[in-house]
Automatic annotation (TrEMBL):
Listed GO biological process terms: microtubule organizing center organization; spindle assembly
GO cellular component labels: HAUS complex
PANTHER family: HAUS AUGMIN-LIKE COMPLEX SUBUNIT 7 (PTHR14352:SF2)
Superkingdom, taxonomy of origin: Eukaryota
Molecular function GO labels: microtubule minus-end binding
Keywords: Coiled coil
UniProt feature coiled coil, ranges: 165-192
Protein name: AUGMIN subunit 7
């Protein structure tokens, strides 16, 4: 920390005499330092607006806003891999806190006291391009076997010469034709089906969610009844006699079969939607959507329901066999 504070003095940080501990833990001093360092790195073309925080105290909402603002800047600068509010607050080990401050201070120092402070990025890019062009023009001499630049097991241009440009152009033309044919096939398929990937399915999703949640509640109630009323019969020594079911049992089985078809169609809809939407959206996580979770719950409940209702189906069939 002594080295960091010494560099802050060299950088003319106005609050460089702040206690070292206050710079390592969440608080006004740490936020003020990070904000000062970040905007030294961003420069005049900063896409972020510098906030005018007054005083050395703030309420919880102001603190959260300030932390979020600093975390977004840190992510933009590449200091953190994501919008990490915990890093801004100084969470972690003592070494991790010091390392983060050390990194940011070194970046500011390098940008403020560069070897050629008036050398612009455009000039550096021009020189880099010129160097690459020069290497490309003289690659035969630079990468010659006589210079022994490569290990013996590495093949270079003299062994595998570069292909002829006309041959590459011919292959490019062939692949372009194949690509054009594939695109034409895709357009023909798209014209046959009314599919809009940007269509808003919010209303349909809400209705589907409502139906599935209602179905889950029904399954829970049935499971409760089965556990308390029907399951004990399966452990009796005698075959259970289901008196009084009559036509109600047939209606229950018919409703169950309809529900089974519905869930099968629902699974097909899910698979089709997943197949058609591959590549249309970029995701940052592999977590399933809420609809997929509900469908998975329904499938799990259906498996349990199949096992439970097999007993009921057998009993109904036996009762129908006894009826003259």
């Amino acid at each position: 920390m002594e080295e960091i504070q010494r560099k802050l003095e060299l950088l003319n940080y106005p609050r460089s005499n702040a206690p070292a501990q206050s710079l390592l833990f969440a608080g006004v001093e740490r936020y003020a330092l990070l904000e000062w360092l970040f905007f030294r790195l961003l420069g005049d073309r900063s896409p972020f607006t510098q906030q005018n925080w007054q005083g050395d105290s703030m309420d919880r909402d102001e603190e959260n806003t300030r932390i979020q603002h600093l975390a977004e800047i840190a992510s933009f600068l590449g200091i953190t891999s994501s919008v990490d509010t915990e890093a801004i607050q100084g969470k972690g080990s003592y070494e991790e806190r010091v390392e983060l401050l050390h990194l940011i201070v070194d970046l500011v120092e390098a940008s403020q006291y560069a070897d050629n402070p008036e050398w612009s990025v455009d000039e550096q890019l021009a020189k880099d391009v010129q160097l690459v062009d020069s290497i490309a023009e003289k690659q035969a001499q630079i990468f010659s076997e006589e210079l022994k630049l490569f290990p013996a097991d590495v093949q270079i241009q003299s062994v595998y010469p570069l292909p002829d440009i006309s041959e590459l152009e011919l292959k490019l033309s062939e692949h372009s034709k194949k690509l054009s044919n594939l695109q034409q096939m895709v357009h023909e398929l798209a014209s046959k089906y009314d599919y809009n990937p940007n269509e808003d399915y919010t209303e349909v999703e809400l209705k589907l969610r409502s139906h599935l949640e209602s179905f889950l509640e029904t399954v829970k109630y049935f499971n409760l009844i089965y556990t308390k009323e029907i399951r004990p019969w399966t452990h009796m020594m005698e075959v259970p006699q289901l008196h009084g079911f009559g036509p109600a049992a047939n209606r229950l089985l018919e409703a169950y079969n309809t529900l089974l078809k519905f869930l099968g169609n629902l699974r097909s809809v899910r698979d089709s939607y997943a197949a058609m939407s591959v590549g249309s959206l970029s995701t940052t996580t592999d977590e399933p959507s809420s609809i997929t979770k509900i469908i998975l719950d329904c499938e799990s409940a259906l498996t349990f329901l199949n096992r439970s209702l097999s007993i009921l189906s057998t009993s109904v069939a036996r009762e129908q066999g006894k009826t003259p």
